[in-house]
Design a protein that fits this description.
This protein has two domains: 4-52; 59-127, OB fold (Dihydrolipoamide Acetyltransferase, E2P), CATH 2.40.50.140. Strand 3 (80-86) and strand 4 (89-94) form a beta hairpin. The chain is of the alpha+beta class. The mean pLDDT is 87. It has helices at residues 4-33, 40-53; strands at 64-68, 71-74, 80-86, 89-94, 105-113, 119-127. The chain crosses the membrane at residues 6-26.
């Protein structure tokens, strides 16, 4: 026969596991349904991203383009990268000299696309 202590511990563990499963299921359904209302900026960003996934990139591999530096980002490797756009299409530029600043116009060569072809990586060639 089961001892009372073992029975209490078993019931407690069962309740903890069950509550954890319920929280996971509820959390998953909330994240899918979007439990909060998006801001106008978030909605516009989401729509631009969705539209970008459905169109062909306005650049091709090997293209040399002039772009304005809109901002700088840090790659996961820690490398500083310039961000510019061609017809709204994002291009991340590597090997940018430290003296290049936001609003500078630079010449770049497109090297690759991300998996969904919604952005590209390019290398810095020179100031335009």
């Amino acid at each position: 026969m089961l001892q009372t202590g073992s029975l209490v511990i078993g019931i407690t563990v069962g309740i903890v596991v069950l509550s954890w499963l319920v929280r996971r299921a509820v959390g998953r359904s909330r994240s899918r349904s979007g439990s909060r209302e998006l801001t106008e900026a978030e909605r516009e960003s989401f729509e631009r991203h969705r539209d970008a996934q459905g169109r062909e990139p306005p650049v091709e591999l090997g293209d040399v383009r002039e772009i304005g530096v809109q901002e700088f980002t840090r790659h996961h490797s820690g490398e500083r990268r310039a961000l510019g756009k061609v017809e709204g299409f994002v291009i991340f530029v590597e090997d940018v000299p430290d003296d290049v600043e936001v609003a500078d116009v630079i010449r770049v060569k497109v090297l690759s696309f991300n998996r969904g072809h919604t952005s590209a990586t390019a290398t810095f060639l020179e100031r335009a």
